[in-house]
Amino acid sequence: MKKILVHHKRNETSVATVENGMLSNYYVEREDNPHLLGNIYKGKIQNILPGMQAVFVDIGRDKNVFLQPNRDQKFEIGQEIIIQIKKEAIGTKGPRATTSLSIPSHNVILLPRINYIGISKKIDNSKRGRLFEIAKKAHLKNAGMIIRTDAQDCDEEILLNDIQNIYKFWKAIERNMIKKKSPSLLYSDNDLMSRIVRDELTSDVDEFLIDSLKIFRRATKFVEGISPNLIDKLKRYENEVPIFEKYHVEEEISKLKNREIELPSGGFIVIDKTEALTAIDVNSGKFVGDLNLSDTVYKVNVEAAEMILKQIRLRDIGGIIIVDFIDMPNDEDKENLMQFMRKEALKDRMKTKIIDMTPLGLVEITRQRFK
After folding, report:
1. Looking at the DSSP assignment, which residues form a beta bridge with residue 17?
2. 326 in Cβ contact with 293 (< 8 Å)
3. Which tens digit of pLDDT belongs to each residue from 60-109?
4. Which of 65, 108, 120, 244 could join 250 in a cystine, given CB atoms 3.0 to 4.6 angstroms apart?
5. Phi/psi of residue 205, each to 5°?
6. Which residues lie closer than 8 Å to 291 by C-beta, 6 or more apart?
């Protein structure tokens, strides 16, 4: 049983995904603190530092955007440039950007100016050929695409319609590039509800419950436009009991700000965020086990790995994450732990990569943020 719960109060919207009674995803957006990730801007180059391979672009906000150019890209100060935000500002560091643009829809990610057709690695091999042939029928000019996982069983007509709609949307943005002066916003991807409907509302969702009439009407209009076959899953929540309390996720949500998280065995993890990375330490705590030391350590590490991957998903932690596991002398245990983590990482819709364990027991994780 999978439900998406939406709670709106004043200028804040919270979204919780509940699977089999457990919180699996959680997002919050405040209207007075919009996110930039995914936005496309027409900016103007303010500074170039050749020694650092760094270009700084004015997009009309308080901080310039950092762009690391490709080797074959040449820029000049004062030059106008089209960029897309790929990483939010953190602390004193401004946002990071790329010149490789992408615009997602429900079934595809459009790649403007790139003649390429890709298919999600999560799609079964037996279905890839059909999807590739459908994508070729779109006959896009100077643009490519990546077929998303949710499209694997998509009807041909629906998929082609989705491709053409997002392509037309891109052509409208392209026309705007000529009209607008820099710095200016060309495309915004920072509305939480539209992203949730586009990326999270799939056929395996049983109910999409919204406790705000305003948000419900907006979501209904959006679903009718991109996934009319899923409109029956959208429902207005009108119970007097608060929606998160009704579905028993309030307590788990309240713990997401905690630095220390307990494990079922009695061990715990400690999460510390810095500007450069997130460090997570694994501790055995009071757990001594009833087996030998090697088995005890392995059990705590597996519990910790599962909790860590759940927490970085719930807290939407992105970038570089370094995990300090309890030292395991057995190489087989280390390999089993890595395999377990890679399997668990597949539960995350965001791109998550698990790097091998170092001799010191450190594991590096890289993750793309949802927002």
Report:
1. 4, 25
2. no
3. 988 899 998 887 788 899 999 999 998 888 777 889 999 999 999 889 99
4. 244
5. -80, 130
6. 299
For the chain, the helix, strand and coil percentages under 3-state DSSP, each to the nearest 5: 30, 30, 35
How far out from the chain centre does Cα 132 lie? 25
Contact 355, 341 (CB under 8 A): no
Q: How far is CA 107 from CA 45, 134, 149, 198, in A?
A: 34, 12, 7, 9
**What's the rounded Cα separation, in Å, for the pair 313 and 56?**
31
Instruction: Judge whether 368 and 318 are in contact, CB under 8 Å.
Output: yes
Instruction: Read off the tokens for 120.
Output: 């999600």
Q: Residue 201, class by beta-carbon neighbours within 10 Å (0-12 exposed, 13-18 middle, 19+ buried)?
A: buried
The pTM assigned to this predicted structure is 0.77
Structure tokens at 238: 């009108």
DSSP state of 90: B
Task: Give bridge partners of residue 366 from the DSSP assignment.
Answer: 320, 353
Written as six digits, the tokens of 211 are: 């406790």
User: Rounded to whole angstroms, how far apart are CA atoms 340 and 347?
Assistant: 12
Q: Are 48 and 77 in contact (CB under 8 A)?
A: yes
Helix (H) or strand (E) holding 212: none
